[in-house]
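Researcher: Structure for this, please.
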Amino acid sequence: GRGFAFQRKQKIERQYRKLLKKGRKVHSQQDNQFTDTYPEHLKHLYLAEEEMLKKRRRAPSDSVLSEEKLNKAVDGYGRCGYDCLVIVRIWSTCTFSPRSVVTEGKFKKKTSNQKAKEEYEKIKAERARKREEAEKRKQQREAAQRLYKQKKMEAYKILSKKTKRGQPNLNLQMEFLLQKIQQNT
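Model: Predicted structure, token format:
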């Protein structure tokens, strides 16, 4: 009957077709990318890149393998040969490099090291933010204390004045109290 090898073959074919479909979507998005809005001194670079991409592309009928070709390849190469054949076909039909196929999968799941680094960066940013907030609060508190001390000193100077005979100056104290009442109302 159909064993695990057949199921594996089916799975690989689905992945291959999925990649082909993705490649076609990428091509259609890239077509709109090249326009005449580029600066003159860089235009030749963009046009050269566009020509290179056109050369890489193949007609859709060439890129899709028929079932017969796949079966012949499997018979000729065995199980490992089929995997290698599919991988080679994927690399040859896609416009992106083989490395991007490998690295695409790597970036989908983050490693524990990447997670730890991100966590560390978050904690570091949080600490910096808290430090800045604490510094602002400290400066505000110091400014308020300076203002309070200045007012206290002025009040002390007025209230501690004495007459020639050493008695407290009640006129100045009354004026100070009057000013205080007027400020509050």
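Researcher: Any notable elements?
Model: DSSP finds seven helices and no strands in the chain. Residues 45 and 177 are 82 Å apart (CA to CA).
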